[in-house]
Structures are given as structure tokens and as C-alpha cells.
Amino acid sequence: MSEVEHEDLGSRRRYVIHRPEGDAELTLSVLSADKVIADHTYVPEALRGQGLAEALLEALLADARAQGFRIVPLCRFVAGQAGRHPEWADLFTR
């Protein structure tokens, strides 16, 4: 699968997959040490349908479990996936 990189920019974070066609990304705003807002997911049109958004979300979920933070899913993609996966309920909050 694609290699997901994590960029920590202080109050902003980004999970990104670099490809020649462009970057797929999931962006976050940090509210506190234990809460982030997943605010946007973007995959360039040429890369859609390859599971990149899912890979980005999986990386975010793995970090949330490992680091003990919860996610406010404002992004439509993240919110939709959270609704489809009740087993992730402990990772999400309002």
C-alpha cells in the first residue's frame, strides 16, 4: 500500500501520501493534547478509487489509539467512515 507520512505543524497536522499526480491528504486541527478535529480529506481526481483516503484514515486511527487522543470528525469522509464502523466509536467525539 502507499506510504503515509505525518507532518506536525504545531496546531495543524497532516497525514499525506505523495504521488507524482499530487498529494492525498487528511488535515487536522489540534484542540488539545487529547482531541483533534479531522477537518479535510483530499485525494486528487487522478488517484481516486485507489484506497488512499482509507489509508490516511487508518494512519490517523492508529495514532489515536497509540497516543490516546480522540477525533472530532468534521470532514465528511471521516464522519461517514466513523458512522459505518461502530468498532471505532471510542476514537470519536463531538
Walkthrough of the structure:
The chain has 94 residues and is of the alpha+beta class. It has a single domain, classed as Gcn5-related N-acetyltransferase (GNAT) (Aminopeptidase, 3-Layer(aba) Sandwich), CATH 3.40.630.30. A five-stranded mixed sheet has the order 1-2-3-4-5. The protein is globular and about 35 Å long. It starts with a strand and ends in a 10-residue tail after the last helix.
What do the pLDDT scores average to? 96
The CATH architecture name reads: 3-Layer(aba) Sandwich
- The low-pLDDT segments are none
Specify the structural class: alpha+beta
H/E order of the elements?
EEEEHEH
Total number of helices: 2
Summarize, please.
The protein is an alpha+beta fold. The chain has two helices and five strands, in the order ββββαβα.
List the keywords.
five-stranded mixed β-sheet; Aminopeptidase; 94 residues; alpha+beta; 27% helix; 2 helices
Describe the SSE topology.
Elements: E1 5-9, E2 12-19, E3 22-32, E4 35-42, H1 52-67, E5 70-73, H2 76-84
Parallel strand pairs: 4-5
Antiparallel strand pairs: 1-2, 2-3, 3-4
